[in-house]
From TrEMBL:
Keywords: DNA damage, DNA repair, Hydrolase. GO terms for molecular function: pyrimidine-specific mismatch base pair DNA N-glycosylase activity; uracil DNA N-glycosylase activity. This is Double-stranded uracil-DNA glycosylase. GO terms for biological process: base-excision repair, AP site formation. CDD domains: UDG-F2_TDG_MUG (cd10028). Signal peptide: none annotated. Residues 18-179 form the Uracil-DNA glycosylase-like domain. It comes from the Bacteria.
C-alpha cells in the first residue's frame, strides 16, 4: 500500500465510503463512521491499529485474516459492512448527536431493506447515541429491526484499551455462535 501523507488523509475528510452489502447477509457489521485512512483508501477499518480484521478471523467468522483491501470477500461469508454515520472524520468525537440520530434512522431503513440476520454495531457508545438506548451494554439487544436481531460489539479501534484482541474475539465469537443457531 502506498504510504499516505497527512495531506492525503486530510483531503479524505467528509468523504463517503461505499458499503459492502447485499441482501440477506448473515451479519451486517456497522462501524461508527469511516476514519480518514478508510476514506483515503476506500477500505473499511483500514487504519493499521484497528483490530477489526484480526478479531474477525480470531472469532471464526473468516478462515484467514483478510486485509482491508479484500473487504469484498466478506460477502462470500455472508458478512457485510456499513456505518452509523457515513462521513469520514479523524475521530468519532467530531460527530454530533444529530448525526448519530439521523444515522440511526438511515441504518434502520437500510436494515429493513437488506434484511440481514443480525446487525452488529461495533461500539456501544455509537449504538446508544444512534438508537437512544442509554443503558445498552455489549451483547445481544432486546428487540430488533423487523426480523433482524441486534448485537453490540466492542469498538475494534486501537484506542479502545478496555478490550484486548482476545476478549474482543471472544465477544465476536459469541455472536458467530448465535448466527449458527
Amino acid at each position: 500500500m502506498t504510504r499516505l501523507t497527512k495531506a492525503d488523509l486530510e483531503a479524505a475528510r467528509d468523504r463517503l465510503v461505499p458499503d459492502v452489502v447485499t441482501d440477506g447477509l448473515r451479519v451486517l457489521f456497522c462501524g461508527i463512521n469511516p476514519g480518514l485512512m478508510t476514506a483515503a483508501t476506500g477500505h473499511h477499518f483500514a487504519r493499521p491499529g484497528n483490530r477489526f480484521w484480526p478479531v474477525l478471523h480470531l472469532s471464526g467468522f473468516t478462515p484467514r485474516q483478510l486485509a482491508p483491501a479484500e473487504q469484498q470477500e466478506l460477502l462470500s461469508y455472508g458478512l457485510g459492512i456499513t456505518n452509523v454515520v457515513a462521513r469520514a472524520t479523524a475521530r468519532a468525537d467530531e460527530l454530533t448527536a444529530e448525526e448519530y440520530i439521523a444515522g440511526g434512522r438511515r441504518l434502520t431503513a437500510k436494515v429493513r431493506r437488506l434484511q440481514p440476520g443480525w446487525l452488529a454495531v461495533v461500539g456501544v457508545t455509537a449504538y446508544r447515541a444512534a438508537f437512544g438506548a442509554r443503558t445498552a451494554q455489549v451483547g445481544p439487544q432486546e428487540g430488533g429491526i423487523g426480523n433482524t436481531r441486534i448485537w453490540v460489539l466492542p469498538n475494534p479501534s486501537g484506542l479502545n484499551a478496555h478490550w484486548t484482541a482476545a476478549t474482543m474475539a471472544a465477544e465476536f465469537a459469541r455472536l458467530r455462535t448465535a448466527t449458527e443457531a
